[in-house]
Description:
Layout: H1 3-7, E1 9-19, E2 24-34, H2 38-77, H3 83-93, H4 95-117, H5 127-136, H6 139-142, H7 144-149, H8 153-173
Antiparallel strand pairs: 1-2
Helix pairs in contact: 2-3, 2-4, 4-5
Amino acid sequence: TLLHEFLYRMLEEYNQNDTNLDFVEKKRRIVCLTRYSASLQSYDTSILFFHLLGPFIINILSAVMIIFRTARQRSTAQNRQKYKEHIVQQFHEHKQLVISRIILVVLSSPRLVASFLSECLNPSHYPWLFLSVYFISFVPSILIFVIFVLPSKLYRKIFKDTLKRCFTRRLTHQ
Length: 174
């Protein structure tokens, strides 16, 4: 879906005046730009939204399906509770599935915003903006443990048990 980007990518050179106290120095800067036609720009924008929202929608729908199907199975097996009570109970048990997906889309959205700004701004004038957006794009993959393991009671318990086993093995081997 992003193959067109390589075809329209070009290097552009410009001069930047760097003024020190004693002299003016001209520095050559090279920037990688992509220039699209209007139709290709709208395609690129829709693809960027698809890459952000597509997995989010699929993950949210699968989490909701897990909650509702488990609640339906439990309500048929356990008649003493109403179906809505089973849904609330399942939501509390699987809330990390919904919360983690929302956190991931929120953490990924600055990259989307920056992709719309990138051609309008000169990177040498806003280096911290480009650098921060670059590092922000890594935040979801860095925080996978925090997003998925810590909110879940089951994953957290398995993680603690694994750590205990590793430490007890290490102590017994020494």
